[in-house]
Amino acid sequence: MKVDVLDINGKKTGRSVELSDAVFGIEPNEHAVYLDVKQHLANRRQGTHKAKERAEITGSTRKIKKQKGTGTARAGSIKSGVFRGGGRMFGPRPRNYSFKLNKGLKRLARQSALSMKAKENNILVVEDFTFETPKTKEFIQVLKGLDLENKKTVFVLDGSNKNVYLSSRNLKRVKTIISSGLNTYSVMNANKIVISEKCLEQIESNYTK
Questions:
Q1: How far apart are CA 58 and CA 45, in angstroms?
Q2: How many domains does the chain have?
Q3: For residue range 44-61, what is the model confidence (pLDDT) as tens digits?
Q4: Is there a domain that residue 36 lies in?
Q5: Which of 198, 20, 189, 24 is nearest to 126 (CA)?
Q6: What are the C-alpha distances in Å from 104 to residues 36, 82, 108, 126, 127?
Q7: Are 125 and 199 in contact (CB under 8 A)?
Q8: Which candidate, 152, 154, 209, 159, places its Cα nearest to that of 180?
Q9: Are residues 41 and 130 in contact, defined by beta-carbon separation less than 8 angstroms?
Q10: Dihedral through CA 196, CA 201, CA 204, CA 205, nearest 10?
Q11: Does pTM top 0.70 for this prediction?
């Protein structure tokens, strides 16, 4: 698939690049995408939730009433979860939600996600650019030129673009990452993927191994 290379003003440069069929043209595997997104979201969970159970509540362990003859249910401790102020029954405990996926499956998921975006014509390739100083106003002009002002967009740039990253980090709908940080969740969660020419080669090299 051929894609025109744009400048930061959204105009065609007269050049085009060929998107690799091995990365941008495969038959998407939706289950692989689901698993990779699920793992990404699970790994982001802190898992620090905790509620006190009856053994952890401060209080008397005296039997609060006799076993029989009261006409109500038997009760052995005021710390029981059936009483106000008692411990929670089977409450949440700290845990690790992360799980493992094979490298091959993760590569397939990212190829599938990029292929979906390519099929929808939601991948833009721009010539390499940088800013001399961090300026959010300049980055907003780039968004206007590419007609991405009101769209959730992921910019995939090379690691030397620190000023571009600093210029974009205050914008809610924009995420700027380097090629090695590209993940399935970021691709699927965006309306448009903007890739610099240099990073396009890196992505194709990373996902065709």
A1: 30
A2: 2
A3: 999 999 999 999 999 888
A4: no
A5: 198
A6: 11, 50, 6, 29, 30
A7: no
A8: 159
A9: no
A10: -140
A11: yes
